[in-house]
Structure formats: structure tokens, C-alpha cells
Design a protein that fits this description.
Length: about 350
């Protein structure tokens, strides 16, 4: 049975944000607005990212583009999957049972966000290898190895959350369905399993690699500036401080990673508290869950604002679209003028 049709004895639909319910429209207004708004942003933003990567060959020169595109496809699927709770809240009939739908939805979103988390960890490893072993980087990191790594990420993410169907709830993504909110409970052992197998290793890898990346870049910058000052003093010219070139690109990736964990931290904290029976609140579960899901759109914004090559690719894509529209308009105007001339000739 559809969750939005299942309510209390007064006939009201089930709403996690009870303050958003209006008798006149008979559905959870605020929940629908939040989910649909995020869905539109996530889908449109990640489609643009995917098209820009295909239109800008320079972006594909970085090996991290494999993982960035993987994240974009995973985030796009997150946006598409948001159609499920949106249709449910709007009273669209669902063929499958509510319990099965909300379990599948929770599993799919958990897998997709796990792919994003693992991709961020792999990006940090890739940058760490590029800076610590620049001479052997091209032999260590090859396209076919990257493809195998991406395949492993998807398989690992699917396997980690597979026990959720029998062990416990992997998250609160499906709690817009009443069965998920009331009958599908979290299990402290399964929560610990997810933390040990996914959250903790990914966070440790990211912290370790970026700490060492910035430390090495700082050392390189200091050495380069000392040499520049030494040689410039001999020539009688003032030397300018030059930042480490790898640090700029590392900063872009670090911003993406930082925003990811900032948006996911409230959700992870609440997940740990709720599964341990310390604190439980439906409003908090909804807000922290969809705050974490909003990260699927933030990746697009950060990358477009921070990467100059991406900005050039975006301008190239928008220019191509505008040129195509202009050609269609010209063709339409010419065909219209020809039809007018032919009709005038018939009346002479």
C-alpha cells in the first residue's frame, strides 16, 4: 500500500514533517517541495557535468576524471531515484508492496552514495600517488586499472549494503514510506558494520592522503622559493613566490571532499545515535538525510566554480547549444519565407 495513503485514524497521510500537511491538498507539501526541488537540481546539474566532460577533451587528461564522472553518474541516478518517494507522496499508485519499494529505494540510494564516498577516497589516493611518485605515476595508474578500480567500487558498494534486507535499515532515505519509518528498524551491529567497512576507512584515507599532499606541496613550494630567491639574488632580480602546481588541483578536489563530509556528518552522527537508541526524531532523520543527498548537486557547483578547464568546457557546451538554436531558427525563418513566396506566387 502507498505510504502517503496510509495515515492515522483521522485519514491524514503519513508525513515525517507534520507541520507541512495541509487539509486542502491532502499531501505532505513541504516534503514534496524539498524532494522535488533537490531532484531537479541533482538531475540537471549532473547532466551538465557529464556533457561538459564529453565536450572538453582536456578534462579527460586527468585520471581523476574517471572518478569524477563515476560520481556524476551515481549522483544522477540518485536524482532519478528520488522520483520514487516523490510519486508516493503525490498519491501515485505503486504496483509493488510498500515494504519492498522502500527497502529497494533505501538500498539503491545507500549504494549510490557509497560509490561517491569510495570515489572520493580513490581520488585522494590518485593525487597522493601523483605527488609522491611522479616518475612512476603513469606506469602505476593506467586507464584499464582505473576501470577495474571503478568496477570494484560498484561491486563493493552493492555487497556492503546487501545484508540490509535482512539485517537492518541502512539509512533513512526510505522513511517517507510509513513502513520504513515504523517497521524497518536500524540495527546497532549493522550500523557498526557499515562504519567499519565504509565510513571509517574512507574518512581515514581522505584525511591521511590530503594531509600528506598539502605537507609535501608546502615543502616543495618552500624549496622552489628558496632556490628562486638564491638565483634571483645572484642576478639582482627579486623572485616571486610560486605555489606548487599540483596544490591547486588538489585544493579543488579537497573542497569537494570537505563539502561531502560536512553535509554527511549530521546524517552519520544521527545514524549512530538512533541505531544506539540514544536519540530518535523523525524530523531530524528527514532533514539530515536530504541534507546529505543534496551533496549530489553540490559536487557540480564546486567543480564548475573551482576548475578553469571545466568552466571553458561549460562555455563551449553553452556556445554549441546557442549555435544549434540559432541554426534552427535561421532554417525555420528561411522555410517560412519560402512558403510565403510560393503562396504569393499562386495568387498572382
Amino acid at each position: 500500500m502507498n505510504s502517503s495513503l496510509v495515515g492515522n485514524q483521522s485519514g491524514r497521510p503519513f508525513c515525517l514533517l507534520a507541520i507541512s500537511y495541509l487539509e486542502t491538498i491532502n499531501f505532505c507539501l513541504l516534503e514534496v517541495v524539498i524532494i522535488v526541488f533537490l531532484m531537479v537540481l541533482i538531475i540537471s546539474g549532473n547532466i551538465i557535468v557529464i556533457f561538459v566532460f564529453h565536450c572538453a577533451p582536456l578534462l579527460n587528461h586527468h585520471t581523476t576524471s574517471y572518478f569524477i564522472q563515476t560520481m556524476a553518474y551515481a549522483d544522477l541516478l540518485v536524482g532519478v531515484s528520488c522520483l520514487v518517494p516523490s510519486l508516493s507522496l503525490l498519491h501515485y499508485p505503486i504496483v509493488l508492496s510498500e515494504s519492498l519499494v522502500c527497502q529497494i529505494f533505501g538500498y539503491v540510494v545507500s549504494v549510490l552514495k557509497s560509490v561517491s564516498m569510495a570515489s572520493l577516497a580513490c581520488i585522494s589516493i590518485d593525487r597522493y600517488i601523483a605527488i609522491t611518485k611522479p616518475l612512476t605515476y603513469n606506469t602505476l595508474v593506467t586507464p584499464w586499472r582505473l576501470r577495474i578500480c571503478i568496477l570494484i567500487i560498484w561491486l563493493y558498494s552493492c555487497l556492503v549494503f546487501l545484508p540490509s534486507f535482512h539485517w537492518g535499515k541502512p539509512g533513512y532515505h526510505g522513511d517517507v514510506f510509513q513502513w520504513c519509518a515504523n517497521s524497518w528498524n536500524t540495527d546497532p551491529y549493522f550500523t557498526l558494520f557499515i562504519v567499519v567497512m565504509l565510513y571509517a576507512p574512507a574518512a581515514f584515507i581522505v584525511c591521511f592522503t590530503y594531509f600528506n599532499i598539502f605537507r609535501i606541496c608546502q615543502q616543495h613550494t618552500k624549496e622552489i622559493n628558496e632556490r628562486r630567491v638564491r638565483f634571483s639574488s645572484q642576478d639582482g632580480e627579486a623572485g616571486e613566490a610560486q605555489p606548487c602546481p599540483d596544490k591547486r588541483y588538489a585544493m579543488v578536489l579537497f573542497r569537494i571532499t570537505s563539502v561531502f563530509y560536512i553535509l554527511w556528518l549530521p546524517y552519520i552522527i544521527y545514524f549512530l545515535l538512533e541505531s544506539s537508541n540514544v536519540y530518535s526524531n523523525r524530523v531530524a532523520s528527514f532533514l539530515t538525510t536530504w541534507l546529505a543527498i543534496s551533496n549530489s548537486f553540490c559536487n557540480c557547483v564546486i567543480y564548475s566554480l573551482s576548475n578553469s578547464v571545466f568552466q571553458k568546457g561549460l562555455k563551449r557546451l553553452s556556445g554549441a547549444i546557442c549555435a544549434s538554436c540559432a541554426r534552427q531558427r535561421v532554417a525555420k525563418d528561411s522555410s517560412t519565407s519560402r512558403s510565403k513566396r510560393s503562396s504569393n506566387g499562386c495568387h498572382v
